[in-house]
User: Fold Glycerol-3-phosphate dehydrogenase [NAD(P)+] from Sulfurimicrobium lacus.
Amino acid sequence: ASLSAHHDVTLWARNASQAAEMDSQRCNSRYLPDITLSAELHFSSDLAQTLHGAELMLAVVPSGALRPLLREVARLAPGVPVIWACKGFEVGSRKLPHEVASEELLEQTPCGALSGPSFAREVALGLPTALTLASLNEAFARQSALALHSNRLRVYASSDVMGVELGGAVKNVLAIAAGISDGMGFGHNARAALITRGLAEITRLGLALGGRQETFMGLTGMGDLILTCTGDLSRNRQVGLKLAQGKSLEAILRDLGHVAEGVNTAREVLELARQFQVDMPITQAVYQVLFESVAPKAAVEDLLSREPGSEAISR
Ligand SMILES: NC(=O)C1=CN([C@@H]2O[C@H](COP(=O)(O)OP(=O)(O)OC[C@H]3O[C@@H](n4cnc5c(N)ncnc54)[C@H](O)[C@@H]3O)[C@@H](O)[C@H]2O)C=CC1
Ligand SMILES: O=C(CO)COP(=O)(O)O
Assistant:
């Protein structure tokens, strides 16, 4: 494998002035201000032009923007292979990205999910990162994992799309919980407990939905959960830290300037947990803090006063 995968890449942005600025300054001043972008990267705000002759499209937008984007892609470049990096559910429909894609892309379009522990900033700095590319089309998963793989970005293939997407979505809710716990000074023991019992929640729901246990123990489950619960670059963790300081959710989201998928995902996951009768106490506590005005301290007290039980993963 080479140091860089060396593809001819065009970065499309819907905002024309941002695309032009990135092109002339070689810098994304809003999101990665101190990083110099590769001289080989092209920029465009014209989606049709960007997709013309494209061999692969990576959709890196918040979950809520995936459906309209894929609809446009299917209209402009029917059949072009698509990989998405979104980690969350579509609000309202409670659908994961692959379900949205199956409704918007032409049948038989090669497509899949790219996920795993990967703060954008560290990837942009060329720091070592490992990811998973999941597709129901196993040949496509292997080919595109290989195409994106380099010495700096190791990409593993998987066929468990549901498991990969579920882990990536639910870990954002648990990162809010870890932020709350750390922000309240509960210490390292509590954080390790939250991560481990959080993984049990991901696994319980994931198994109920048909995912594979090994996926939840892998990069897109445990790996991303550890990263997001412990790394201060996580926007979801930051939301938790600020909730613990007593700030309102509205003010936190206004100041963040980025998406924190765990906020919407908490609602969707709790609904799914009810539907599938899966016990998810940490997710429920985060939901109560976010949407039911329960104080972080009271939510933690509630978690601590639960009946002791077995460590098993069963529902
Ligand atoms: N930032 C990170 O380190 C990572 C993010 N992700 C996931 O990738 C997805 C996107 O996250 P970020 O880029 O970090 O979010 P962000 O909030 O930092 O940036 C989102 C970008 O998408 C653009 N956008 C929003 N709606 C759009 C639309 N309808 N059409 C086109 N562009 C649109 C925004 O203008 C912005 O440039 C999320 O689901 C996130 O969970 C996954 C791995 C790492
Ligand atoms: O998914 C991520 C890293 O893998 C980024 O997490 P946040 O969205 O919480 O910043």
User: Anything to note?
Assistant: The beta strands are 10-12, 42-44, 57-59, 82-84, 111-115, 129-134, 153-158. The longest strand covers residues 129-134. The chain has two domains: 10-159, 168-304.
